[in-house]
Batch of 2 targets.
Target 1
Amino acid sequence: MIKKHLFLLFLCLGYQAYAQESAFKIPDTLRSKDYDYLFERVKALEDGSVKQSLYLQSFLHKAKSEKNPEKIIDGYKNYVHHSPENLKLVYADSMIYVAKKSKDNALIGSAYLSKGIVYYAQKKHNYALDNFLIANNFISKTNDNYLIYKVKYNIANIKYYLRFYDEAISLFRECTSYFKDENARAYLNSMHLLGLCYNKIGNYGLCSETNEKGLAEGKRLDDNEMESYFIHSEGINQYFKNNYATAIKKITYSLPVIKENKDFANESVGYFYIGKSYWALHKPKMALPYFRKVDGIFDAKSYIRPDLLENYELIIKYYKSQNNLKAQLHYIEKLLKADHILDTKYEYLSGRIRKEYDTKEIISERNNIKILLDRRKYNDFIFIAVITFLFFSILFLVYRHIRNKKIYRQKFEELMEKSETTTKVEAKNTTNGIEGINQDTVASVLKQLERFEKDKKFLEKDLTAAKLTAAFDSNAKYLSKIIYHYRGKNFTKYINDLKIDYIISLIKEDKRIRNYTNMALAEEAGFSSTQRFTTAFFSKTRMPTSYFIEEIKKAHP
């Protein structure tokens, strides 16, 4: 009866989602927008907001009207990422339905992989593994390395959960090497889980080293989403190094972000090791509230893993010391329940991953070795090398294009947030002046620079330091020193930045200027060549002129 009600609820949710899609009509203002624009707006807006819903529906409607299976699947994937929990699986099934109709192995495999990831996030590991294995069957028939490594990553997660740490380490190392130049977030995730595995096998030094590298790489890649997770990992690692106060401090620091991410699994583990640290410090009363938090998550989410069984053993031990038989009995029942859940899950997961993934991987590896041995001919080697080079070149170009668009967007928003830009900077020490130059001379040159900037004399073509020195009736060496000290730049960058700031203000204020070519803009700013203008513009703004003008047109039609 319960299953029947759940099935009816699932159908109702699916019908509700379908009805919303069917009744939708894309607004005229969004008809000409491309998928990248709609996707960026979905990411930028708050989940569940009316505006986000408009862009989600517009993306999917556009894909359906163009009968583009890949983009339809992307549309449903957007819903998977940004919908309430009770609808995520509905949209994941929609992805699978469209993928199957396309008969494209990569699309089908990717859809099943997405559904598995939803289940894994819900800590329903049985269902997650089922979908990962189905995904692997389809993806293994393709040459899509990115998807192949996504499967490896998710299988490695299951192996970590099953405590097959050495095997998980091998897979996570592969993923770290592959994703380093392909996907920053996947690279950092792989490194984080690699560190956790090192902790589990007792290599605490290598765990700390991996966590430190993860934090450094996050800064290098300008991606701080994993920062709290590396700190959380290091906090647990510090517990095993017997640095209990440090463990409490680090884990406590990491938990707000983890709770905000609704990551109840890492939240539970964090509470457990804070409790264990207080217990090790002989403060059981301070440990008990954290152990109860772990129990609360178990009640709410049915989440448990092998090391968390000790949570109940310590609670029972505490109440035994208090001679509280009723509380002891209650938590003994909880311990038995958690142990039963683990036994059931582990038996199923362990059996399937050994039978259906590991055996298949071994056979696949054996077959690959045979093929390589059979193909050791010079011409075949050259052919494979060329194809591989072309494949990764295309992947790199696609990746660079996506990455650049993201960087350009960020730089554009930063530029728009600034007030009227100026190349003028405060001197490091305006009171002491510049050593070796008379203060009256400095004051005179500064006044002339201000008048030079105000009158826009910098727009003169082929302006050189020698010409400006002559105009100021000054000394070339003095002029360069004064510009560097009070404007923070050398002469060439100072002039170029003034010209670019002038062009930026023109583009913002004058719609006519937005239609100028780079050659015309270079002429307007007084650059001697188009190349010098485009180089100076990119150096100043970190984006091409075409991108900047297009975004200005969107922001101020």
Note: Residues 439-555 form a domain with the Arc Repressor Mutant, subunit A fold (CATH 1.10.10.60).
Target 2
Amino acid sequence: MNKFEALGLGESIIKAVNDMGFEAPSEVQEKAIPILLNEDTDIVALAQTGTGKTAAFGFPLIEKINPGSKITQGLILSPTRELCLQITNELKNYSKYIPELHTVAIYGGASITDQAKQIKRGAQIIVATPGRMQDMINRKMVNINNIGYCVLDEADEMLNMGFYEDINSILSHTPDSKNTWLFSATMPKEVSTIAKRFMQNPVEITVGHKNTGSKNVSHEYYVVNSRDRYAALKRLADANPDIFSVIFCRTKRDTQKVAENLIEDGYNAAALHGDLSQNQRDMVMKSFRNRQIQMLVATDVAARGIDVDDVTHVINYQLPDEIETYTHRSGRTGRAGKSGVSMVIVSKSEIRKIKAVERIIKKKFEKKEIPNGEEICQIQLFHLANDIRKSAINHEIDTYLPSINEVLEEFSKEELIKKFFSVEFSRFHNYYQNAKDLNIIAENSRGNDNSGSTRYFINVGERDGFDWMTLKDFLKEVLELGSDVLSRVDVKESFSFFNTTSDYTDRVLSVFEDFRMEGRKVNVEISKDSGRRGGKRRRDGGGFKGKRRSEGFKPKGKRRSDTSDHKNSHNKRRDRRKRSDRR
């Protein structure tokens, strides 16, 4: 008997499973499928990315759907359009021998009227991003009043992206009698909250331990100065010639910048983030799957749709703001039984975050050294030698051998080998011969941090329409930081000061490296006057010369009496931005 048959699956799905070459169910499939097939229950399933969660809920959902009825019976919510399309395609493959069953993807970036027409023709299963689904409900383009099953896939990521209100609203249009199946990689308190609110006595399934990382992934960290972060990334790539990786950055700006630098330096790289059009994102992902791109630089949100089994490395160019997000990142490698490596590049002030991640994933990191130039040259040479040894001989070259032998007849075998390998060796040797050691001593790193806070100078102030409250709101929005990270905001006439915890120094300087406000450059530097609140530091160019308040930036709600209105406006803008980026 087929191992999937033993789980209770029907003949149509078993035929599709055989066509796809599935041999044995994964642990989460083995635990979830029999429960979902045989019981009408809510369920919370915790399992890492890449463990087969889509089949774990997809197989039972297809079995329970009535293909003879055209009404929508199942709804799957997923955080991003990439993941939405991925789930839809997989469900279509699973149900290929049930021609009456139709699955429709609903996501932003595509025609909403075309999607509405597909639903009207009959869609027993809808897979949707929360933002687009809410939009269609508001327009009365979809009816989910009679669904029997609702799946929240990657629930932790949807809540982390700010979709709680959308999910709450969407579920309010579904019947209380439905079964809710929640699948998640981690179990932060937000997921626990939604489970309590929308589910009744759910069965809980855990593969491994809560929030743990994949057993097939090893975790490494490298300590460098912040200014050497990109140089460290290059060396890690050069030290792993067969690297096929996803590189994670915190912001879209950093993602684009790192990808452009890699391309300029001759690497096969590309960026994947929310500012790309759907067509651009599809082209990038197609190139990555075909291995035409060796290094994909991505934001956490955009990477949710990456489903590639052979990723060798995940490189955390910057650690995520939410520690639980690291589990999602590292889950991009070590999939389908293969091993993988998750690397983290950190500055001294960030080392304590490694300990926090270790507690979450219940795994230890190994501290490693950034390789020097000599080590990289050696690695590249032996890699080339192995490539030559494994290469098949193309006998089409036989025609040219006499002429080639004639050109090279004066050289011995040893001289020819030296000349051949010198081509590759010289390229790396010339680049790295005077390269400095990027590694820094990590011990006692906290002692150099003083109070653990960094103070900054910024060349905007009262004449630009700011007071301390509106400047803090402006910085929170631009830097995408919480109130607890920003402190000691002190506004002067033409300049100001503010503090962040030292963990965010790199982000602040990176975001404001080339930041313009109404065409004028906003300059942010680490303040030399860190010990006094505000101080009396003045400099030429501290404000926008000759610009009166009426000509400068006018933040909304600049009067204290307008504070609540400003906060509401800011929150709405933030939520709209999050939804548009994630659809």
Note: The first strand starts at residue 43 and ends at 46.
